[in-house]
Each structure stands twice: as C-alpha cells, then as structure tokens.
C-alpha cells in the first residue's frame, strides 16, 4: 500500500513538473511574440533601416546614370577633331612649290599613300576617282582630289605624276622633303612606318588608310575610312557642300 502511495505521489510530481515546463515555454513564446521574435523589434527596425538605405542608394545611382545617358543623347556633339594645318610641298604636275593656300576656294579630298603600295592605295584612289566623277557632274571644279606621298625617298615627282595619271588626270600629287612630309602628316595625324627591306632593298609602308575632306576655307570637315563606300562618301560630301553654301549665304 505504501509503495502504491509513493508511486502515485511520484507520478503526480512528474505531471506537475511537465505542466510547469509547458507553461514556461508558452510564456517564453508569448514574450518572444510581444518582443517581435528572436531578433526583437530593435534588430528588425535596424534591418529595415539598413535595407532601405541600400535600396535608396542604388536607386539614386541608377536614376543619376539614367539622367546622364539621357542628357548625352539629347545634347549635340560639340567641336571636331583638330586636324589639318598649313603646309608647303611640291606640286608634281607643275614641279613648283605649293602651299595650302593654293587650294582655297575648293574642297580638297586628301589621301596619304605611296606609289609602291600593292593594293590598298589603288583601291582607295579608285574610290576617290569614282566619288569625284559623280560630284564633278553636279559641281564642276569644286572638289579637288589630292595625293600626298608618305614615301618621298622613293616617290619622285615624275613617278608620282605617272602613277596618278593611271587613275585620273584630275589628281594633284604632292611631295616634299622627309621633314615636310612628316610635318603635314602630323597635322592630319597620319601614321606611317616603313617595314623591313628585302634583298632588293624594297619595302612596304604601313600607314593610316583615311581620306580627309577640307572645305574651301581650308578647314578640316570630316574623314572617310576604308570601310566608307562610294554612296556614303558622296552623300556626306554633298551634305558638307550644302552646309558650306548655307554658311556663305549668312
């Protein structure tokens, strides 16, 4: 009987203990809920503040970048490359010295090359001839094609004259001393570099493949690369002629 009584008391004590533990857990959960969870309201508020600040920062950066891009699209480009300048060279047609002033009153389409060029120069010169022939029909004498050698050591006056006649008699060839050629190339930012010589002393010259348009006032207007085709060059040159005509009317 005593054993049963003791067992019953032990069972009651265990139940009381379990009930008490469950009540404590319930109270802890209730307290956590009131505090805003394990992190607490203070921690939660801090996270919200920091997260909001980060979102605002990146949103502000995005907005600023978007405004800059929009502004750059709306604003027209200002200025032009500082190309061109005075020169004194030798006209291979007349064998006389000539300066840039000689070409005032006409548009110049200038190409820098050399007579020993195997393919690139002939291709570009033929393209200039085709462009010139089209524009010559509309405005005779307004566009002057000009060839300036970058290899004055080999390109003599007679060689340049003969070379250009194979393309068109309308070309004006120019040459000069190495120093004069270097000077005019710097004005137009033309790169050129002679390659290694072969057993015969022959060599190629690596150089800029660009045609430059200069207006009748002697001001550089724009350039055309190897990828510019005939139609593009004709259209753009006509636009420059039209702009020049309008400027003169003001």
What does it look like?
This protein has 250 residues and is α+β, with helices and mostly antiparallel strands. Helices cover 51% and strands 17% of the residues. It has 6 helices and 9 strands; from the N terminus they run ααβββαβαβαββββα. A 7-stranded mixed β-sheet has the order 2-1-5-4-3-8-9, with helices on both faces. α3 (120-138) packs across α6. The longest helix has 35 residues, at 40-74. The protein is elongated, with a radius of gyration of 41 Å.
Q: How would you sum up this structure in a few lines?
A:
This protein has 250 residues and is an alpha+beta fold. The chain contains six helices and nine strands. A seven-stranded mixed beta sheet has the order 2-1-5-4-3-8-9, with helices on both faces.
| Order of SSEs | HHEEEHEHEHEEEEH
How many helices?
6
Helical content band: 40-55%
Q: How many strands? A: 9
What integer is the average pLDDT?
A: 82
Gap from first CA to last CA: 129 Å
**Order of strands across the widest beta sheet?**
2-1-5-4-3-8-9
**Uncertain spans:** 68-78
What general outline do the C-alpha atoms trace?
Answer: elongated
Rg over C-alpha atoms, rounded to the nearest angstrom: 41 Å
Largest sheet: 7 strands, mixed
- Derived from helix and strand composition plus strand pairing, the structural class reads alpha+beta
**Percentage of residues in strands:** 15-25%
């Amino acid at each position: 009987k005593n054993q049963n009584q003791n067992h019953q008391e032990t069972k009651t004590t265990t139940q009381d203990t379990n009930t008490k533990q469950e009540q404590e857990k319930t109270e802890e959960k209730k307290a956590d809920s009131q505090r805003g969870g394990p992190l607490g309201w203070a921690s939660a508020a801090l996270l919200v503040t920091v997260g909001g600040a980060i979102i605002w920062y990146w949103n502000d950066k995005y907005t600023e970048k978007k405004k800059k891009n929009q502004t750059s699209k709306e604003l027209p480009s200002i200025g032009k490359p500082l190309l061109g300048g005075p020169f004194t060279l030798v006209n291979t047609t007349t064998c006389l010295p000539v300066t840039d002033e000689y070409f005032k009153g006409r548009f110049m389409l200038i190409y820098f090359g050399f007579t020993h060029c195997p393919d690139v120069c002939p291709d570009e010169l033929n393209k200039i001839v085709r462009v010139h022939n089209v524009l010559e029909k509309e405005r005779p004498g307004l566009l002057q094609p000009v060839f300036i050698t970058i290899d004055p050591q080999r390109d003599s006056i007679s060689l340049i004259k003969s070379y250009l006649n194979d393309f068109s008699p309308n070309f004006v060839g120019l040459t000069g001393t190495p120093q004069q050629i270097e000077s005019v190339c710097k004005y137009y930012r033309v790169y050129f570099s002679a390659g290694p010589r072969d057993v015969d002393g022959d060599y190629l010259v690596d150089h800029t493949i660009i045609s430059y348009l200069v207006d009748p006032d002697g001001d550089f207007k724009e350039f055309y690369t190897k990828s510019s085709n005939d139609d593009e060059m004709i259209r753009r040159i006509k636009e420059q002629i039209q702009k020049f005509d309008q400027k003169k009317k003001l």
